[in-house]
Amino acid sequence: MDWLELTVCTTTSWADLVSQLLMEAGSQGTMIRDRQDVINYQHSHTDGYWDLLDERVLAEMPEEVRVTGYYPGDVKEEEVLARVEPRLEALRNRAQGMDMGSLKILRGTLNEEDWAESWKKDFAPFRIGRHMVVKPGWCSYRPQPGDKILEMDPGMAFGTGTHETTALCAALLEELVVPGDTVIDVGTGTGILAIAAALCGAGTVLASDIDPLAVRIAAENIRRNNLSHVIRTRQGDLLQAVDLVGNVVVANIIAEVVASIAAPVRQYLVPGGYFICSGIAREKQEGVFSALNAAGYLDIRAMEKGEWAALCGRNP
């Protein structure tokens, strides 16, 4: 299967919002190529690990940040552009003179079989939460004391862990999951948060996604991390795939969807259980907070990182 690639050239500070924009315009996943990420990683690792990486990675990366969205090949390019361009213009107006880069749009196609290879160019180990390190299978990593390693192969599924919302959810899982808990990951993507929950001590984890390819990739990542005895996968639309009650439900999707499922999630939570939700741009945080409040959650709080927020509420 071929995929339509639509790439927007922007800056580091606007990359996540451009990614969200492409998702709202129908992208099945996004990838951000930012040379500053590589520079930051290099400067933060003085243990010699950088020597294991190919120095050409930085030299070959473009000066502008490139955010690429992936659309099914049967979608017409002009239809995608008709959704993307007005959103970009609205974002430019919102910026009020701030540097957003050129916002140039580049077009291309990608064959499904070539997807994994395209990720390998820039993907290096990185930390989410306090103790978890995400590592692609083709890289080596020297663990620090207390590190928990998640070995991931992005494949065609959305969610490699580089997004700030994933880090926020992982931090909340580290804080709230108690050994033996049951955790439900709605919209699992690559399975990264389901795996993180298991590494935090969850005894049972359900990872669901509407995309059959995401379910397959998640299952492969779960097997790679030797967690098939803890995590099972199911295909289905949001809560339709959930067939148990958990101590924690986590949903890293988009703000509008999170708000729509806030009330129904409670029937899948034990009393006192937690709903962790993200994929929420900061300007949409208040609306999601209101939805959680209206649904009856207690002790609602927010964590923020960059332009993104995660919310957590307790079931009465």
Q: Gyration radius, to the nearest Å?
A: 19 Å
Helix content: 25-40%
Which topology of the largest domain does CATH recognise? Rossmann fold
Mean pLDDT: 83
Q: How many separate structural domains?
A: 2
The amount of beta strand, in percent, is: 25-35%
Keyphrases for this structure?
316 residues, alpha/beta, Rossmann fold, single chain, Alpha-Beta Plaits
Description:
The chain is of the alpha/beta class and 316 residues long. The protein folds into two domains: 2-116, Alpha-Beta Plaits; 159-314, Rossmann fold, CATH 3.40.50.150. 33% of the residues lie in helices and 29% in strands. The chain has ten helices and 14 strands. Strands 10-9-8-11-12-14-13 form a seven-stranded mixed sheet, with helices on both faces. A four-stranded antiparallel sheet has the order 2-3-1-4, covered by helices on one side. The longest helix is centred in the first third of the chain and has 19 residues, at 77-95. The model is unreliable at 41-56 and 156-160 (pLDDT under 50).
Overview in brief:
The protein has helices spanning 15-24, 35-44, 56-59, 77-95, 115-120, 164-176, 192-199, 212-224, 255-265, 285-294, and strands spanning 2-10, 30-33, 65-72, 105-111, 126-128, 132-136, 148-152, 182-186, 204-209, 231-235, 246-252, 269-281, 298-305, 308-314.
How is the topology of this model organized?
Elements: E1 2-10, H1 15-24, E2 30-33, H2 35-44, H3 56-59, E3 65-72, H4 77-95, E4 105-111, H5 115-120, E5 126-128, E6 132-136, E7 148-152, H6 164-176, E8 182-186, H7 192-199, E9 204-209, H8 212-224, E10 231-235, E11 246-252, H9 255-265, E12 269-281, H10 285-294, E13 298-305, E14 308-314
Parallel strand pairs: 6-7, 8-9, 8-11, 9-10, 11-12
Antiparallel strand pairs: 1-3, 1-4, 2-3, 5-6, 12-14, 13-14
Helix pairs in contact: 6-7, 9-10
